[in-house]
Amino acid sequence: MSLDQCQLIEFPQIRDPRGALTFLEWNRQVPFEVKRIFYIYDVPEGHGRGAHAHHDLHQMLICLSGGLTVHLDDGRSKRAVCLDKPWQGLHIPPRIWAAEDSFLKNTIYMVLASDTYKPESYIHDYQAFLETVRTHD
Fold it and tell me: Which domain of life does the UniProt lineage start with (predicted)?
């Protein structure tokens, strides 16, 4: 996998005098079947989240309120993506190291995942991640 496969996806927006509505339809805006949804909030100031990769799991991160920075790493290059619009999602494919930080106050972000929670799907050690990336090249 490479950072080129990490895509910021714009979701449809419907706006009228009552406000805005954004929707997701499986197999349209989300490029994988969603089997788990969770959301993260109340991250203490100065703390981060993530700092791991997955062997086979796809994720879509959507910032519902506030903002955060997602640091992406494919073992060869790195880039940072700011998430602060509820009509955008960041697709993170397998074998991409992702870490979140720089949370604005009251940030809430949701994660759509392609599988149920399985601890063995995580790569928590950065050196093990680099080895995994090398073996899949």
Answer: Bacteria
Query: One of 52, 54, 55, 136 is an active-site residue; which one?
Result: 52
Ordered by start, the domain boundaries in the chain are 3-136
* Fold category of 3-136 in CATH: Jelly Rolls (2.60.120)
Q: Is 41 helix (H, G, I), strand (E, B) or coil?
A: strand
* 3-state class (DSSP) for residue 14: strand
Predicted TM-score (pTM) above 0.90: yes
Give the residue ranges of the chain where pLDDT is below 70.
Answer: none
CA of residue 67 relative to chain centroid, distance: 13
DSSP string, 48-113: -EEEEEESS--EEEEEEES-EEEEEE-SS-EEEEEE--TTEEEEE-TT-EEEEE-PPTT-EEEEEE
